[in-house]
Amino acid sequence: MELVIFLAVVVVALVLVAGVGVATRRRRGVDLEPPPGDGPGAGVVELEPEVVELEPEVVEPEPEVVELEPEVVEPEVVELEPEALVRPRFRDRLAKARNRFSGALGSLRGGRIDDSVWEDLEYALLGADVGVKATTEMLDAVRATVAEQRLTEGDELLAALKAEMLRRLGGFDTVLHKSDSAPTIWLLVGVNGVGKTTTAGKLAHRQVGIGDKVMLAAGDTFRAAAAEQLTMWADRTGASIVRGASGGDPSSVVFDAVASAAAQGCDLVIADTAGRLHTKSNLMDELGKVRRVADKGEGSVTEVLLVLDATTGQNGLVQARQFTEAVELTGVVLTKLDGSAKGGIVLAIQSELGIPVKLVGLGETATDLVDFDAAEFVEALFE
Fold first, then answer.
1. Where in the sequence is the domain holding 113, given as residue range(s)?
2. Nearest to 48 by CA among 31, 24, 34
3. pLDDT tens-digit profile of 47-57?
């Protein structure tokens, strides 16, 4: 009986131990049940593989070093048109006037002197804006030369004409004078549109270039853009400038400019003046006042230059007469002589009014305002 009880206890113990083992394996996720069937795989316990997720190893590649050649940026080159470095030649700039004048004289070259020649010569001179009075006087003088020297060839007649032109253009005082005590004062007069303000700027450029200390006076207070334009010239040339309020008294501007020039030790005052008022009489009265006021301060007025547009022809001669009545002109500045001007206006001015042409404009740049050279001018018309 005791043996039976012992065996029963052993069996119970074994069952308990087996149960504990199964429970343990189940907790570990292992399936203890054998696969169904009686084949070779029967009784084999298949375990599900444990999946272990590993973080991928990050391998940072070494950066590839690429050496780039530095980009060379060429500086932008801005080519500025340089101003002429040499004095322009009359022959080069008077091509249009020469073509008109020489074309009309073509029949005289290589021919003989007869009655028809004188008609051609008169036509050429009038067409060149010499004017009726000056043309008549010149033809009379050339006829006398032909008769006296018994000339017969057309080329000889042209040579006599050139000599007469030189005689009429020569003998004038073309120097721009300065006063004994500084500052010297130069007044520019003329109607609007002839180039007074531009001439003032170019004249300042010229005088600064030879060592003068220049003061510009913006006396054209009635034209809105005149003072601004002259200020640009002052900045460009290194000259000083005095300007007044728009519509102000031109005389006071000129007076202040002279006083300022004296205080600063300037050598020269170049004064632009008004070119248009309500009536012609007002303009002339104003110019007379400017002339008187300019002489009241230090220094003195040595030049009153009439600026004329050469392309206006005989109208320029009319203007010259009007301004001569208002102010005592000392000379003429003839602008735009390189354009469509016919050239003969130079002879008309000097022959009829006795006023010398002192400066001429042969182009647009600052260096194209040059001294008038009578011999070079005449040669340029005939070549």
1. 90-169
2. 31
3. 454 544 545 55
